[in-house]
């Protein structure tokens, strides 16, 4: 055993360990006081980096949720305003419907026109007032607005709302008034190589969708309307068409007595087929009266399942269909001196054709129905080859925008068109509302995901940064005990040099 006075190894060793225990005890006290396992980088450098990144992501997810909630708020404000616009549009629709009835006189229709214009002004005010945080929502400027919802850069979605101003609401329209054509010939020869025949060498195109006939056919508004309404691509674009046809004979009716040796055959064509659907024959001695002709046309049309209705209005022959073309071909045989056929007493035509008394012959006329093709957005069309028959001003071009400011209900025709335009507008507004609803659902799903992710991220951070109190308390007790025992042993170690005095006695 070596005893030294100048150097007490045992005391030095014990002191070093006491300092180490003190550091550990202080660290444990700090952790228990703050609740954090990592209070500085020296505690766990890698852990600090990971925990800080997790904390950043959690905070960014919270902010992303707030950003998404702002997007929902903007969409809710816009949707509420569009709901008000929808109410105004439904009022406008019923007023246009009221104006379409011919029991209204000019003054009543003017009053309805003023009411509609006031509703249009209200729509403009609503669209101008809709805003979020000073940003206009329904004036057409809210386009490609970025909502940053994610924790990282470029985790965004865009949000756009179309304009709901009266000048931007309406329908894009291609209208045809329907054409008339007559000739001193058979109906097939009458329409041959003209815009009143849709030939197999021709095509029409609506918004990029093409129709080619399988065989030469009479130009028919109902045929085109059915094509538009039955095409899935055009349906997805919101494009729809309506057709109607009403032929009011140009001249009032005069009874026709079929002369001896004569016969008169009236062939009726309905639709695009180039063959007659039925024929009515009057022989010598019979009298062709308006009531009898109306009765026979309705009877034969009903038997053939045709959408043809005949009536007598103001002593004129009126023929109506659901848009199908109406064709009349009248053939007179014999040369009786009292049988005169005037085509314009049978059908509405551009010029009258006559089979004069004393001669035989054939005359024919065709009346194409009117058509309206409407869509919520601009589209191109090409009706080359049949535009004249349909009564369309330009054979090719872009559909014309009929906005709410241009609505006119001062007559039946314009009021009917106004109803169609308003209906398309209502569908567009509903589509806008639907889109805003989808945006809200999407943003709410993002918020729910962000909140869940933020919770899981904080849990992950907590496992790294926060102290396990049970474990740390056990460690603290250990260090505290070591400190107490170390101090006791240091006191003992300090007594060792005094043993030298025993040798010096």
TrEMBL record:
Coiled coil feature spans: none
Alphabetized Pfam families for the sequence: Flagellin_C, Flagellin_N
Entry keywords, A to Z: Bacterial flagellum, Cell projection, Cilium, Flagellum, Secreted
Location of the protein in the cell: Secreted; Bacterial flagellum
Positions of the Flagellin N-terminal domain: 5-142
Residues annotated as domain Flagellin C-terminal: 419-504
Chain's role: Flagellin is the subunit protein which polymerizes to form the filaments of bacterial flagella.
Family indicated by similarity: Belongs to the bacterial flagellin family.
The protein's name: Flagellin
